[in-house]
Specification:
Elements: E1 2-6, E2 16-22, E3 29-30, E4 35-40, E5 45-49, E6 54-59, E7 66-68, E8 72-78, H1 94-101, H2 118-126, H3 145-153, H4 195-210, E9 213-221, H5 223-240, H6 247-260, E10 267-269, E11 272-274, E12 281-283, E13 285-287, E14 290-292, E15 295-296, H7 304-320, E16 333-337, E17 356-360, E18 364-370, E19 373-387, H8 393-408, H9 411-415
Parallel strand pairs: 12-16, 16-17
Antiparallel strand pairs: 1-8, 2-4, 2-7, 3-6, 4-5, 6-8, 9-19, 10-11, 12-15, 13-14, 17-19, 18-19
Helix pairs in contact: 2-3, 6-7, 6-8
C-alpha cells in the first residue's frame, strides 16, 4: 500500500517552497522519519521525512519545482526494498532486470554523505575530487560546500592518467586549451537561483529602494580585547566549556552602545518609530546554502559564556542545516563579521525592518600615534550602515564611539560605562 509524502508545515506565513533535491530515488529502501527530499524556503533548507518505512515509490515533482504546504510530492510503498536480483517484470523483460542490477553512480561507494546536492556535486566535478575520500560534517555525515572547498584547498586531486612530468615542471590544466587549438568549445553553465538567494536578492534591493542607507566608519585598537582573551581563555574554557571569542565582546559592546543610542536598535513601522527595550542581535553565520542570520535574543542580559555558546551552536547547526525559521526571525540589530573571510573594509546593507547593521573586519597591525610616538597596534575597522530616515549622523558616530571606548577598555562592559 502506498503512503503519501506531503510537504510539511514550513512556518508562520510560509505557504510554499522549492524542491531542492531528492535524497532518495525510486526503489531505495527508506526508514520511518528518514529524509527523502530537501526543500528550500526563503530562509532555510528543510528535509521532508518519510512517514513510514518501506520503498521509495513514484516522485510527483522534480528538483526546482515550487510546491505548496500539504501538497503530495511522492509515495512510499510499504515493505522492504526489492533485492537487486528481483525481476521488475516477471514475464521476461530482461532489460528491466539488468537496469535494476546496475548501480547508480552515487551508489558505487557507500556512505550517506555521497548523496550530493547540486552545488556540492558541481564543486566536486570542478576540482576533480573523490567525494568518498572527503569527511562530511553535515547532517548524517553529508558533504557540505565547506567540506568540499576545504578538500580542494588541500589539493586533493586524482593522479593524472598521463605520464608524470619532469621534476620541477608545472602540469598544465587538463580542462583548458588555448583558443588557437580549436579542440574545445567555451562553455557556460546556468544554475537556477535557490529560493534563499532569490529572497536575499529581493530583500537587499528593497532595502536600497526603501531606506536612506548611509555608512559611517571608525577604527578600534584591539590590544585590550586580545590581551583579555590571552589571559583568561584557558580559565574561561575550563569553567564554561566554550572558547572565549571576539563576538561576545562585540555583542556586549553593541548592547551597551545601543542603550545610549536607542535609535540604532529601533525600527520604522509606517509613520511610527518602534523602540525596543531588548537587544536581539542577528549574527551572520555561514551555511552550505549561504549566509544565514540566527538571532541571539536578549543579548543585553546574557553573559559572555551564554553569548559564545549560542553563537557556536548556531554555527554548528547552520552547517548541518537544522536551524529553524523561528531562530532567524525578529532581530533588532545585525552584526556581520567579514573579517573571518579577510575583509579589510565594507559597507554592509541593513536587513529591514532593522535600522542598522555593524560590519566587523580583519585585525591587522597598523602604525598609530600614541603619546606622540608611532607604534604598531592590532587595529580593526568598524562600519555602521544605518537608515538615515531614523538615525542621524551624530547618533551613528556616537554609537561607534561608545563601542570603540568599550572595546579599548573592556572594563566598561562590566561596570556599564
Amino acid at each position: 500500500m502506498a503512503t503519501e509524502v506531503k510537504v510539511p508545515t514550513l512556518g508562520e506565513s510560509i505557504t510554499e517552497a522549492t524542491l531542492g533535491e531528492w535524497l532518495k530515488q525510486p526503489g531505495d529502501a527508506v526508514a520511518r522519519d528518514e529524509p527523502v527530499a530537501s526543500l528550500e524556503t526563503d530562509k532555510v533548507a528543510i528535509e521532508v521525512p518519510s512517514p513510514v518505512a518501506g520503498t521509495m515509490g513514484d516522485q510527483l515533482v522534480k528538483a526546482g519545482d515550487t510546491v505548496a504546504v500539504g501538497a503530495v510530492i511522492a509515495h512510499v510503498e510499504a515493505g522492504g526494498a526489492l533485492p537487486a536480483s528481483s525481476p521488475v517484470n516477471p514475464e521476461g523483460a530482461g532489460e528491466n532486470i539488468e537496469a535494476k542490477e546496475a548501480p547508480r553512480a552515487d551508489e558505487e561507494e557507500e556512505g550517506p554523505h555521497l548523496t550530493l546536492s547540486p552545488a556540492v556535486r558541481r564543486i566536486v566535478l570542478e576540482h576533480h575530487l573523490d567525494p568518498s575520500k572527503i569527511k562530511g560534517t553535515g547532517k548524517d555525515g553529508r558533504l557540505t560546500k565547506d567540506d568540499v572547498l576545504a578538500a580542494a584547498a588541500e589539493g586533493e586531486k586524482p593522479e593524472p592518467a598521463s605520464a608524470p612530468a619532469k621534476a620541477g615542471a608545472l602540469a598544465p590544466r587538463q580542462d583548458w586549451v588555448p583558443a588557437s587549438a580549436g579542440t574545445q568549445e567555451r562553455r557556460e553553465e546556468r544554475v537556477r537561483m535557490t529560493r534563499l538567494r532569490q529572497t536575499v536578492a529581493r530583500r537587499l534591493k528593497e532595502a536600497q529602494n526603501t531606506a536612506a542607507i548611509l555608512t559611517t566608519f571608525n577604527d578600534v585598537d584591539m590590544s585590550a580585547v586580545m590581551a583579555a582573551r590571552a589571559k583568561y581563555k584557558d580559565l574561561f574554557e575550563k569553567k564554561h566549556g566554550i572558547r572565549l571569542g571576539f563576538m561576545a565582546f562585540f555583542v556586549k559592546a553593541a548592547a551597551l552602545a545601543a542603550h545610549d543610542v536607542p535609535a540604532v536598535n529601533a525600527s520604522i513601522d509606517g509613520e511610527e518609530i518602534v523602540y525596543h527595550d531588548y537587544f536581539d542581535v542577528s549574527v551572520a553565520v555561514s551555511a552550505p546554502q549561504g549566509l544565514v542570520v540566527p538571532v541571539v535574543r536578549d543579548a543585553q542580559a546574557l553573559s559572555f559564556a551564554e553569548i559564545e555558546k549560542r553563537i557556536a551552536d548556531f554555527g554548528k547547526r547552520a552547517k548541518e542545516g537544522t536551524l529553524t525559521l523561528a531562530e532567524m526571525q525578529g532581530g533588532t540589530f545585525t552584526i556581520s563579521n567579514g573579517g573571518v573571510f579577510g575583509s579589510l573594509l565594507s559597507t554592509p546593507i541593513i536587513n529591514p525592518p532593522q535600522s542598522a547593521v555593524l560590519g566587523m573586519h580583519r585585525i591587522e597591525e597598523r602604525p598609530v600615534v600614541i603619546d606622540g610616538q608611532i607604534v604598531a597596534r592590532p587595529m580593526m575597522y568598524l562600519a555602521l550602515s544605518y537608515d538615515h530616515r531614523l538615525i542621524d549622523g551624530r547618533e551613528a558616530v556616537t554609537f561607534l564611539v561608545r563601542m570603540k571606548e568599550a572595546l579599548e577598555d573592556p572594563t566598561r562592559l562590566l561596570i556599564d560605562l
